[in-house]
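Notes from the 1:1 (GR / supervisor)

We went over the backlog. Supervisor wanted to see one worked example end to end before approving the batch request, so GR pasted a single chain during the call. The sequence is below; no edits were made to it. Supervisor asked that the structure be written out right there so they could see what the output format looks like.
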Amino acid sequence: MIKKTFLITLFLLSVTAFSQNITDGYLKYSLTLKTDNSAITQLYAQNKTKEDSLITKALLQASKSFKNLSFNVELNIYPDTVLTKTVDTKILFIPEKQKKHTLFYKNNKEYKRFFEVTEDLKKKWNIKHKIEVDRNDKKTINGIEAYKIVITEIRQSSLGELIDVNEVYVNDKIKIPFNNYEILDLKKNINLNGLILEIKSYDKDSPSLYNFYELKEYNLKKQDKKLLESIKKRITSTN
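Structure output shown during the call:
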């Protein structure tokens, strides 16, 4: 019954939202972190710096504790802000400026973190996107037909090259700007729209280590505005 209601709601929304850019809405995804000990071990062996070695060593130790870790991720989308919420983190994201204010919790304490992709940083990184659209690669997810888009973000700097890949299945009848999807973690805005039903995100050098998102709920009217105001106050308050 729940699945049937979900499908009816999506159908009605797809009709009313056709060719309309959506700037308000609520999305809930299940996120599964996929790990592969052999891939991490290989990455560890290839590291060139002490810092990289420490990072992958920590990943290897963490991956021994679990094979796959799953939890929910909620996106509250507003006209100029996106609030992303997980079990222990809240991110206030401003898509236009690629700015993130993060509140995270550790040992029952709240910590703040801030990040913004400035124009200066964009120039230093030399960010480029390669976008591949394959409308023949289709998948039905929760009863909704979607086609595949692969977004490859290449960041080049004096320190080397980083290549992030997002394999996305999308239904483009509902026009949510891709820039509003904080979970894509793009460092430069792109001109794509649609309801994303599935995401597989990974570093090009280690494709067997990835985040897998699947849409579980979509609603144009459900938003936690009280939570948004609360997070804004806590972010702007002094420590």
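Supervisor's comment: Residues 51 and 136 are 43 Å apart (CA to CA).
Batch request approved.
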